[in-house]
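Subject: Sanity check before I submit

Could someone independently write out the structure tokens for this chain? I want to compare against mine line by line before I put it in a report. The sequence has 264 residues.
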Amino acid sequence: MGNAGEKLLRLMDIMKRLREPGGCPWDREQTMKSLRPFIVEEAYELIEAIDSGDSRVVAEECGDLLLQVVFISRIAEEEGLFDLGEVIDTLVEKLVRRHPHVFGDVSVEDSEAVRKNWEQIKKEERRDKKLDQSILSGVPKSLPALVRAFQIQERAAKVGFDWPAGDISPLLEKIDEELKELAEARKTGNPDEILEEVGDLLFATVNLARHLGVDAEFSLQETNKKFTRRFEFIEKTVETGSRDWSEYSLEELENLWQRAKTRS
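---
Independent answer below. Compare away.
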């Protein structure tokens, strides 16, 4: 496989060349902010590759995500902010600092103890850096909404602000309550109220999923995949038939949907 360090230096040299005069016009135009959507996209493509189980695709997508880190580091170096070496140094220091049970003299019994130590160390780091000390601080605002809702609820639960474990009936009642409030908002016709109540309903649903041990984000992703498979069956059926979409009644499309359900 060769020396990873040498290959990283080669990657850095390529990135530098792309950003230099005479390099790639597109690469030279990019900024940290312009790269944000690509970072998100590459992260999700890596997740999809992992789900596929194809190690070659996983390796390729790891490279694409690594490129974003190298890209940002190069831009920062040009602006005199930091370079890739500092990024690596910061990561190494953080890993050592947050694993005192490996690199220090702290003893832990299990992964739960490791998690608690990790959170305590993070809290101390934020205090030392004079950052926001709120329990909910550190949950990135740019996270997908379902993921952020889950993390917010997890943070609140750590200090006891949570529904009792093992009984989901209050959570189901909460969802019913939010549905009723949404129905009332619809009666008023106020779009701001409807928006708010839909958000409350989704938040309550994420909480239910969390108590059931289900990752709401991935659960919805699986449902998206399932819907796509079934809808594609309907598409193929319509395309191979003699009629256009507009000639199908809703009842006929529903019948096709039921057929699709039996197939996947």
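---
OP: Matches mine. For the report I'm noting this point. The mean pLDDT is 92.
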